[in-house]
Design goal:
Helix 5 crosses helix 6. The two termini are 16 Å apart. The protein is globular. It has ten helices and 14 strands. It is 43% helix and 18% strand. The protein has 291 residues and is of the alpha/beta class. The strands form four sheets. It has an eight-stranded parallel sheet with strand order 11-10-9-6-5-4-1-14. The chain has a two-stranded antiparallel ribbon with strand order 2-3. The model has no long low-confidence stretch (mean pLDDT 95).
Length: 291
Amino acid sequence: MLATSTNIYCEQHGIHDVPIERCIHICADAGYKALDFGFVEFIRQSRSILSPDWKDEILYYRQLADSLNISFVQAHAPLYDFCNPSDDAERLELLMNRSIEGAALLGAPWIVAHPSTHAESGIFYSDTAAMNVRFFHNLADYARKFSVGIAIENMWGKTADGVERYAIDAQELVDLVDAVDSPNVSACWDTGHASVEGIAQGEAIRLLGNRLKALHISDKSKSQQIHILPYMGSIDWPEILQALADIEYSHPFTLEIQHYIPRVPVALVPSAIKLSVETGKYMIGQIASCG
């Protein structure tokens, strides 16, 4: 099933926070039938996420999608650097929990979450893996109450003080998922992140195998710009699509391409999003032909 994130149209010519409602409408008009609900952008826009009646706003998006014959097949949790808690940790924990319950209200069976790296003053702490296992084990217990699964995403790059992030490597991601050892914890593979790190993605996808329940599909340009439309960058797509066929991947094929639209003139945005639908369908067809 082809899907895209609601962040596909979250920025326009430097103007942040195009309303999610607008994105849902334009995606429906372009032909999308499934979406990944981005809680990162929702939290920036929400008027009620920290209030007692926060569920009403979530249910509005569910009703809107239902009216447009669109389903939410996954979601993206807010960003929470839980290995390095700040003064805002209590608020971030609440937002994480509400995003899980919100995913359930939207009908999304999986929510993608980032791992964290315990680091300070340029030092990587060896308890990072254990802290992640503990965090995701507890989060999975909470999510199970709402029949939601947690898909842990591969990372890229370095922390603010120059430490390589945890779970860049597919083996680390496999080890983390296996150590949490919960039926509602799996993996999400982000092709743009992996490309920045020069990872052999076919091998990585085969290693993940049936742990892979979600995808973030995007390309990377030579300038390291990620989250652009596939075939507009430098990624070797036949390698990735063949690997997805080899593991018989059957979960949503989700484009996460928030850096594709921002500089496109407003008049061309509908056509650009329709092109993303055509591109995604083509890629799914290529996976089928590889099988």
